[in-house]
């Protein structure tokens, strides 16, 4: 391939390289000169201003705990001093969005001292902290890697003479021990590996780096290290009862508990976490390109509950709230086992989710108690007193756990934190994650059959299907008052009055363990759970069975075949037989909800039309609940969807289409609490039980590795060891890297490439004219290529190396398209692998590229259309290029095909880079796969099918293109609007696009019995970005 002459030149001021195309370098140098002059002017400011800024900088230890960024001191823009700006680093967390992100503000400041795009964080008046401005206009260095963060800080665990993997003798010993512990390896397995390591079977004799000789040594080092930390201890729960013979007896339930407050002290004193904490409640608002997007909610500290709790603390910054998310759920240790595992886990709500949402991890979701299996001492479950006794045992066990937090929840506990600040931590539990059955236990309500069954409000049992009427919320103070009044009746021997009062309120007359914890209202802390309430509840147990009851056996067979033959999509869970899901989890039910509407709407009668609308509304509610940045406008839209769902449900009930179906069930009523919970407590990923549900997998693994006799004791010990390994790994990751030290990354390659490392960024866009990147290895493999993929129009991507206000291209590879070469996956018959082996003329002659897909309409006139398209683009740019001569047009172009397009785009949900993989190949898991994508056109976004992804070379430039066929939208029908999807027909004519014009992948679901028609499914794979992109497309009826 001929060389490409570069037109990039360095800036005379900053030295960065910029393209000279259309004056790009000149514009940058002007901005640099303006910034340089501004910095010079700052040096001559009044001494009083400089003193004030110095004081602010010294106070950043207090002001920066909440931003969660590791690295240099961030910038604070004071209300009075908005021109004084320091450098900030940014931390990437795909889930956390901007909660722990702060960016450099470089270049011109638009408007009165503010960037064009920024986030404003406001703090509660009691803290007396200034507002913080976080610029989104530039791309600072990515600082998300803990090792890189440690290097930037220059000191993490630096004053400790011990190696970070202590007490293990070497890093190799720790890696081996960690692997053996996490997999619950037996002593026999450990001895087998160590013996063959030392005797030369697995490696050369004497070359092993392991110091351990046997499993006993490994266990001894591990258990000795555990003595430094809080570990599980057995605390039997003694219960008095009267047996069938009338004799008073005592029964003890074994329980394992860990000091949760000791874990809290350890975390806040850890240097590696010092820059990750969010110490203060905040209100966040966003401005993008000078357009006010309004206030938004992400983490719990940005919710209204945290703001309210902040106002109850003492003035100043010393006293801070320390919120915990609590989870518990009971499960069987094995499918046919009688052993119950009932963990109670907590995780900090003021840490980024990339830390807090990891199970059995330091700073993450950790078990602090293993509840006993609560069953009648005499085995008589039919005793009418047993439900009350079971709840009493549960709260007695819960009280043991909460006792450790009692003092810290009331007056707080003063702790010297790792950043040198002394804070008084006030422990709170604003979020309790549990399924509905355990919510009844926590709130001490009477369950489904009570007059007021909800643990959160006073909705009547007969009105649980009414989502239109507001309900009165329960409060802990009211519950206490009712119990005091009922207790007074009982002491006066008015037991009937006491029981009648408690029944009328749906409560049990028992002391609640949560009453000993200050600043916690258990009814408010109980949180909506999408998994159990929507996916497994309203949909999985009610609406989906209703659909199945309406389908004939023949229709079920057609639906199963349609779903089995449906196209693949990145992140989609394929359901082979949706009619049989006896052991399906919530994610499988959610996957059916995403996919089912295009396949069933034609098999159901007119009376089922309102139910189809219910299903669509439930899908939209689920997708709105998945948003990770909840703007106020989106929350209002979610509330409107719940109201519309309730209105549609009422219409279905009034028409008596399904007289035998009762929609008055608790999980239906839970929908009214979804969006109020998001407003109060943060986005739904903090409220869901899915993190805790995954925690059970490790406990079940530990149970199978136990001797089954002392299962709980051994499970507790395994959790202690797992957390120890996580602590040590955190220290290793947070410590400064030593020259020649161990590489902490387990796999530097990409999982989809068979271990190929990430290539260096190379510009191959025609108008950037960078050199051809990559080298051909010994096996003649083609290099990996990267191009800038984002654009506001198909042409702008060629000129812009970065997107406004996002990630660092050097560290993250953001906004790039990565192409995987086709020859790494398939051999092409009769075609040489080098350029010139296959060309545009051959593809036009054969009507296709792949031998299994020839004579296709999309490839008719391939060569002529390709040359014409390239020339048209050059003429549009008006840069001196003209349409080639007839001789030029006759010259064939080399074609280099690719199978995968790794596409990075900016999510409309989080405003952060996301990745999808777009395929175009004849066989993928036994079937053809030609994916569809949204393409930017002058008329707006259009879906298109990619038939061939390729590179070619013309006019001394590399062109990265695709051969596609567009989809044309039909005029909307009433059914289209009912199921909320637009109907399309695929065009036969092929066209060419630049890869830069692709916005992201999309999903066209074929409509049964209409082979040429498709529905654009915006709910596929729960992809909220795709949903938001298509949501504004109106129905033209």
Helix content: 25-40%
Mean pLDDT level: 79
Percentage of β-strand residues: 15-25%
The helix count comes to: 32
Globally, the shape reads globular
User: Structural class, please?
Assistant: alpha+beta
Total number of strands: 30
Q: Which SSEs are present, and which pair or pack?
A:
Layout: E1 8-10, E2 17-19, H1 24-42, H2 47-58, H3 60-63, E3 118-123, E4 132-135, H4 146-153, H5 171-182, H6 187-198, H7 215-226, E5 233-234, E6 237-242, E7 248-253, E8 256-257, H8 260-268, E9 282-288, E10 291-297, H9 304-310, E11 319-328, E12 331-332, E13 340-348, H10 353-356, E14 366-371, H11 386-402, H12 406-410, E15 413-416, E16 422-433, H13 436-443, H14 476-491, H15 495-505, H16 522-525, H17 530-550, H18 553-565, H19 586-595, H20 597-600, H21 609-625, E17 630-631, H22 632-655, H23 666-669, H24 674-681, H25 690-705, H26 711-734, E18 785-788, H27 809-812, E19 816-821, H28 840-846, H29 862-877, H30 886-890, E20 896-906, E21 913-924, E22 927-930, E23 932-937, E24 940-954, E25 957-969, H31 974-979, E26 982-986, E27 991-994, E28 998-1002, E29 1004-1007, E30 1010-1016, H32 1024-1031
Parallel strand pairs: 11-16
Antiparallel strand pairs: 1-2, 3-4, 3-9, 5-8, 6-7, 8-14, 9-10, 10-17, 11-13, 12-13, 13-14, 15-16, 18-19, 19-20, 20-21, 20-24, 21-22, 23-24, 23-28, 24-25, 25-26, 25-27, 26-30, 29-30
Helix pairs in contact: 4-26, 5-26, 14-15, 17-19, 17-21, 21-22, 28-29
